[in-house]
Design a protein that fits this description.
The complex is a heterodimer of chains A (about 160) and B (about 160).
Chain A lengths: L4 H13 L27 E7 L5 E4 L5 E11 L2 E10 L5 E8 L7 E5 L14 E10 L8 E13 L3
Antiparallel strand pairs in A: 1-3, 3-7, 4-8, 5-6, 5-7
Chain B lengths: L8 H24 L9 E5 L3 E5 L6 E7 L2 E7 L11 E10 L5 E6 L3 E5 L8 E12 L2 E4 L6 E6 L3 E3 L1
Antiparallel strand pairs in B: 3-4, 4-7, 5-6, 5-8, 8-9, 8-10, 10-11
The chains are: A mainly beta (about 160), B mainly beta (about 160).
Chain lengths: ~160, ~160
């Protein structure tokens, strides 16, 4: 037997009052423009990278490391991260290690290895970061021979908050 | 009074499907966070290339030889960059008779070595050469062999250069 009209009406009212049927509410609204106009602009983002001084990696003896320091400086807006990679350096027995540094001197190098290809912690806007580049000829190396290598730095922006 | 006709079953089924789909899409957007919407600015730069090279280790030069009942070989050490602290240099003296492989007959850290007549075969001419060996941190580098000097043992006890 179908429900009567009165029963249907009661059910509808009960449904509306139960709060489930939110679409039954009609809201009052009002809008105003913001008093001062906001300017939106795109920022800038750059990275300066250079060696500190002119480190020499020539004439190495076996197991006699040489260390230089690279400086990375962020320019522009926003926070940032950096990532490093070493290319080239095809010299038998040559090992290249990147180390965190607290300053521009070789004496500022720490023992913390910077993993090539891994993104760093987020850095503040405009920060300068120093990285030590250490080379050593180990097992399998031989006298003579040379190879050029390049340190490549990549930076990317990070959200402000 | 006649009751309102019921809607077809298919229409009722369609309405019941639409709502869950809409809710599912809404939940997906909220929970998924729209990660694909993030885009990073990245910049890449390379520092000036550096050259890594191994120190050269040429052969000793200016071999001398003198003998009678024994023979003494002298040489001039090869020119090399200053060695790191802890590195050692040794000179290896070898003789080669005919087409046989060179045989090491002695070593020293000095610049000359006296060898017994028995280190060269009797009634044969041998070529004596000297190599420099640098050892540091467990890694050895050996120079090429120097130009040789001829040594001949006769009557079992006499050695002439």
């Amino acid at each position: 037997m179908r429900p009567g009209p009165r029963l249907v009406a009661v059910a509808v009212v009960a449904f509306l009052l139960s709060g489930i049927a939110t679409t039954a509410y009609a809201a009052w609204s009002a809008s105003r423009p913001v008093a001062s106009a906001a300017t939106i602009r795109s920022g800038t983002f750059g990275l300066d990278a250079a060696w500190v001084g002119a480190p020499s990696y020539t004439g190495m003896w076996p197991q006699d490391p040489r260390t230089g320091v690279a400086r990375l400086t962020h320019t522009g807006d926003g926070r940032w991260q950096y990532q490093l990679a070493v290319t080239g350096g095809s010299l038998a027995g040559l090992g290249v290690t990147l180390l965190e540094s607290t300053g521009p001197d070789v004496a500022d190098c720490t023992a913390t290895v910077v993993t090539p290809g891994a993104w760093s912690a987020t850095q503040p806007t405009g920060a300068t970061v120093y990285v030590c580049v250490r080379t050593v000829l180990g097992a399998g190396s031989a006298p003579g021979g040379s190879a050029a290598f390049t340190l490549q730095a990549t930076a990317r922006n990070q959200p402000t908050t | 009074m006649t009751a309102a006709p019921r809607q077809p079953r298919a229409a009722r089924a369609l309405r019941t499907v639409r709502l869950p789909v809409a809710l599912g899409v809404a939940l997906g957007l909220v929970l998924g966070g729209g990660g694909a919407a993030y885009a990073w600015w990245t910049v890449t730069t390379s520092l000036a290339a550096r050259t890594a090279s191994a120190a050269a280790l040429p052969a000793p030069t200016q071999l001398t030889c003198s003998g009678l009942f024994s023979y003494t070989v002298g040489w001039t050490p090869p020119p090399t960059p200053a060695l790191p602290a802890g590195a050692s240099v040794q000179y290896l003296v070898s003789r080669q008779t005919g087409t046989a492989a060179p045989v090491q007959v002695g070593s020293t850290t000095g610049t000359s070595l006296t060898l017994a007549a028995s280190t060269v075969p009797n009634n044969q001419t041998s070529t004596v050469t000297v190599q420099a060996r640098v050892t540091n941190g467990g890694v050895e580098w050996t120079s090429p062999a120097s130009a040789g000097v001829s040594v001949q043992r006769t009557l079992s006890i006499f050695v002439g250069c």
